[in-house]
Design the sequence.
């Protein structure tokens, strides 16, 4: 009853409680909303590098260019690690071969992995994974016997097999930022046309596209990851080396675009091998192939890409909805150059600055190129060998050399890779095809990796007449000719056009082409007339010796 004080009291209490609940709900509902939103979002930070090629710093070899190398990005990576201990650090391959410094360690030390300055610096950065690149396999047997066992990080390559079993770790699982993250690595099948059997050691490079489909399905079934990242040491565009791959009867060497178009399950793709930095500066949009974001890590430590992936949980699946990025360019601070110089051993400095008895005088690029190609051919000439068809050297800048003594360092700049000469038996028709290479299908210009410098100790029939083959004796004759191991294995796609029989190699040099050239120029006293700009000054000249 209304006059019942106790009844009135209970009625008022019930109304007050209802109002109080409404007020409390209004006040705390935003808190629950924020909590629910936070529980359904996440951020993942990672840093990407690629194609370091053993460069600690380019400051010693290329002092007048912008400095690049691991030392120039090391501090930025360390700072990012301090800011975010969960940060994921990845490299897209071609780590161990390319710079004069690592070439020296490969030649001069019985256990190069224990002495290699570049490799020890890389190890200290605590990378989470590195993809196997063709230039990593290219230093075999050193890679398998020294570098791989000493590595404090996993080497990834889901499509490389040995005796029908994975030759490397296909993928890794990281638990970072409260998520389960799968990282799957793939390596280019082009290794089969750039490397010999002594480097591949029985490894078979399977096609990337079906391998990606298989491992995506396998990882999803086994691991149920929240995020899948694909990291490839392979180019994006299939047209690059496409014809060469077909001539070598190999899967496409560069098929990242095809992989993404047929496999949409990657949340992020990282690509190497192309030596491109994409995006190339902060503020540029991330590239997408269909709905998959793609980045490329550049080369030689020119920069690293700092990525911040923003994810949202939608329909029980994490999705990348936005990517913030920062391009951290290589530092140009002078102390890095001086610190690097102090780390270099006297043995290495003596090796790289070893002098030749010639001084470089003023000339044109065309004359210098013609001379060096000729000297390279002469240095690799042997008794019983008819001639050579070796890669052409290219010189881009002469001003740094004029008036200075020639050194091993100069040859290392012009001949960047440790190619060796291989003697093969060629017919006149084979030689004609190599001297006159065709451009790749659909292109006008002949690519540089098909241009060879012909040198023969005896006069061959005139190929321009195109009637020499009517002479049966000329048609059937076979000549021993030196080519580079890069071309012999299939690089450039020119040797596969000849249909050489298996086991064609007669002799493979144990010394690199550029080292043979250095030893030749140390001893020869008289150069051909094409090299008059190289003035002989002797081994004990008092001419000012510039330190490059």
Sequence:
């Amino acid at each position: 009853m209304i006059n019942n004080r106790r009844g009135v009291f209970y009625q008022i209490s019930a109304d007050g409680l209802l109002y109080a609940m409404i007020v409390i709900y209004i006040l705390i509902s935003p808190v629950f909303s924020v909590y629910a939103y936070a529980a359904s979002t996440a951020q993942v930070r990672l840093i990407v590098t690629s194609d370091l090629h053993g460069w600690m710093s380019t400051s010693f070899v290329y002092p007048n260019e912008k400095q690049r190398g691991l030392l120039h990005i090391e501090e930025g990576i360390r700072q990012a690690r301090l800011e975010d201990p969960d940060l994921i650090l990845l490299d897209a391959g071609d780590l161990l071969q390319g710079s004069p410094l690592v070439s020296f360690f490969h030649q001069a030390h019985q256990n190069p992995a224990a002495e290699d300055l570049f490799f020890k610096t890389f190890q200290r950065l605590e990378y989470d994974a590195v993809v196997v690149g063709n230039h990593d396999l290219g230093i075999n047997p050193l890679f398998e016997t020294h570098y791989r066992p000493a590595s404090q990080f996993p080497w990834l390559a889901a499509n490389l097999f040995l005796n029908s079993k994975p030759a490397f770790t296909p993928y890794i699982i990281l638990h970072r930022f409260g998520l389960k993250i799968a990282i799957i690595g793939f390596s280019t099948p082009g290794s089969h046309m750039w490397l010999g059997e002594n480097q591949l050691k029985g490894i078979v490079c399977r096609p990337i596209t079906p391998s990606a489909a298989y491992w995506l399905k396998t990882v999803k079934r086994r691991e149920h990851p929240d995020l899948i990242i694909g990291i490839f040491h392979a180019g994006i565009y299939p047209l690059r080396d496409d014809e060469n791959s077909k001539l070598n009867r190999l899967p496409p060497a560069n098929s990242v675009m095809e992989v993404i178009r047929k496999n949409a399950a990657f949340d992020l793709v990282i690509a190497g091998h192309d030596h491109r930095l994409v995006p190339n500066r902060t503020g540029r949009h991330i590239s997408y192939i269909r709905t998959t974001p793609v980045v490329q890590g550049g080369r030689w430590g020119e920069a690293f890409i700092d990525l911040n992936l923003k994810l949202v949980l939608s329909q029980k699946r994490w999705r990348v909805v936005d990517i913030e990025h920062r391009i951290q360019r290589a530092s140009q601070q002078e102390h890095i150059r001086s610190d690097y110089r102090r780390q270099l051993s006297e043995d290495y400095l003596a090796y790289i600055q070893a002098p030749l008895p010639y001084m470089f005088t003023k000339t044109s690029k065309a004359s210098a190129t013609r001379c060096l190609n000729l000297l390279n051919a002469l240095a690799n000439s042997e008794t019983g060998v008819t001639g050579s068809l070796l890669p052409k050297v290219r010189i881009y800048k002469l001003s740094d050399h004029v008036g200075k003594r020639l050194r091993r360092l100069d040859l290392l700049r012009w001949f960047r890779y440790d190619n060796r000469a291989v003697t093969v038996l060629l017919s006149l028709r084979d030689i004609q095809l190599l001297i006159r290479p065709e451009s790749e299908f659909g292109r006008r210009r002949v690519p540089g990796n098909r241009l060879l410098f012909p040198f023969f100790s005896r006069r061959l029939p005139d190929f321009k007449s195109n009637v020499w083959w009517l002479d049966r004796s000329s048609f059937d004759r076979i000549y021993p000719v030196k080519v580079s191991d890069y071309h012999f294995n299939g690089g450039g796609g020119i040797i596969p056009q000849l249909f050489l029989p298996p086991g064609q190699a007669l002799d493979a040099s144990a010394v690199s082409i550029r080292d043979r050239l250095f030893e030749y120029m140390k001893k020869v006293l008289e150069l051909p007339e094409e090299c008059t700009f190289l003035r002989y000054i002797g081994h004990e000249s008092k001419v000012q010796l510039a330190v490059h």
Remarks:
- The radius of gyration is 30 Å.
- DSSP finds 20 helices and 24 strands in the chain.
